[in-house]
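Page 47, continued from p. 46.
Same chain as before, 240 aa.
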Amino acid sequence: MRLLPFTALAAALLLAACGTPPSPADAGWHAVPLPGKEPTRYQREAKDGRPAIAAVSVRSASMWRQKLEQPPASLGDVSFSWWAQTLLADANVADVDREDATARVMFGFGGDHSKLPMRARMSFDLAEALTGERPPYATLMYVWDATAPVGTVIVNPRSDRIRKIVVDSGPEGLRRWRDHRRDLAADFRRAFGEEPGPLRSMALMTDSDNTRAQARTWYGDIVLHPAAAPADTPAALPSR
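Result:
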């Protein structure tokens, strides 16, 4: 049986990794490097009058992540926004050799790993042996792709436990804020065909390592809207 390469699971693995305990000032958000990759630079920076995190990727890949523990019953909508300078013309989130994205927001979910196929469990076992951390049961990403139509669900070619929903496509919308509000649980069911488990982490990621290109994107706050609560509290993005 052929095991999935560890590098294919690196981003999803680190989406769940504990890392160094954050200080109270950064509200749990922190940069997370990926093995063998130059890191994308994340820093607090206002854009067009909005507070934001600027992501600058120069042939690089890393994440800006926060750990969570939110039960599935409380999952409601999620709001997020991004402002992209350019698209990565040669990137394609469905092609493992060109799998870069100008903008992506990622969510890691828990679940019963014993229900996964043997191939997935063996790959997760290998990742855990190498790093001491097990990948999320499932990772859902919202992405901006150069060509895939909006609404497309893309299964990662190396792990079907990573799935992507295209929410922006092509150059229309560049150089202005793009605001999105999604039903997180409904999108999970659509992408994976099952009910979501607890939400364990969320992250931003702009990467250009596969295409050897450059990208610059600004991200607004990610806001989790509780399913049964009228008041919404933003998950503020702190400075690095």
